[in-house]
Amino acid sequence: MTGVVRRFGRSLALDGVSFTVPRGSLSALVGENGAGKTTTLSVLAGFLNPDAGSVDVLGLGPYHVSTHRGRVGILPQDAELPGASTPRELLYAWARLQGLTAVAARRSADECLETVLLTDRSDHRVSTLSHGMRRRLTVASALVGDPELILLDEPTAGLDPAQARHLRSALAERRGRATVLISSHNLPELESLCDHVVILEKGRCLLHDAMDVVTGRDREVEVILAEPFPPGRSERVHLRLPPGDRRELPDATSALLRELLAEGARIVEVRRGGALEERYFGER
Fold first, then answer.
1. Residue ranges of the domains in the chain?
2. 207: helix, coil or strand?
3. What is the pLDDT of residues 124-154, one digit of tens each?
4. Is residue 92 exposed (0-12), middle (13-18) or buried (19+ Cβ within 10 Å)?
5. What stretch of H or E contains 201?
6. Distance (Å, whole) CA 233 – CA 34
7. Interval 269-282 mean pLDDT
8. Does domain 2-214 correspond to CATH entry 3.40.50.300?
9. Can you tell me the distance from the alpha carbon of 102 to that of 36, in angstroms, rounded to the nearest whole number?
10. Cross-strand partners of 199
């Protein structure tokens, strides 16, 4: 999207937001409450029209059902489900709406139920499912039909650790064959899963770049030492390759470690870059 503006009355939700995400990437959409994350996803999905600016979804312009049907899946922030239906019925219906044949829709519905660990509940009424189960079903609704672009708003909210881990693995398997944009407040989870990050604040895009660049994993190393430290050293030794430095980080790191060992240092840990959480608060 480029220069996107979206107002709700006098409130300016998006103030000239511009960013791109690489095709086939798993990208994180980060920001505090009210930063514009949900509005951004809604504009991309065609739920909302921008007041200004332009949107290009999959290189086909702004979302339109005639061109994007079956190519985009979305998990909204607050998705409600009809309690009288079953998970299999709902996923089958959504797959048909995505343009799949009856046979393909049944197959996709069953695959998505397996992905979110709901196969054993596939024919139970939604009203009998727990909150976590319903949340998993809404995630499955964004995956049905194997869309090219998947927009997820807090996909692991309400899931237990095992379920969240399983879902992260399922999303990671889509890297390279689908573009996934995930809005979440769980920064460690996003850091472990995503390879690109977009940071919003007060309706503006502060940055969008590769996760390795934002966290410094491509140019920085921190070495933790144990006492006693060599003369002139402290507990933490930092290596930062400046812009334009032609050295590869592994080579520079090896040279630093050899130097520290020659000085008699006891190395406890070697870390690449910093945490996304640290960099996020550093950008604000």
1. 2-214, 216-283
2. strand
3. 999 999 989 999 999 999 999 999 999 999 9
4. buried
5. strand 196-201
6. 44
7. 89
8. yes
9. 38
10. 30, 207
The 3-state secondary structure of 107-170 reads HHHHHHHHHCCCHHHCCCCHHHCCHHHHHHHHHHHHHCCCCCEEEEECCCCCCCHHHHHHHHHH
CA distance 135 to 84: 16
Q: Which two tokens stand for residue 101?
A: 């044949």
Beta-strand pair 266-272/220-226: antiparallel
Query: What residues contact 180, with CB distance under 8 A and at least 6 apart?
Result: 25, 26, 27, 149, 150, 152, 171, 174
Chain centroid offset of residue 239 CA: 28
CB 203 within 8 A of CB 14: yes
8 phi, psi to nearest 5 deg: -120, 95
How is residue 92 written in tokens?
């089958």
Structure tokens at 144: 């049905």
**Residues 227-263 pLDDT 10s:** 999 999 999 999 999 888 888 999 999 999 999 999 9
CA–CA distance, 284 with 257 (Å, rounded to integer) = 33
β partners of residue 74? 151
What backbone phi and psi angles, to 5 degrees, belong to 3? 60, 35
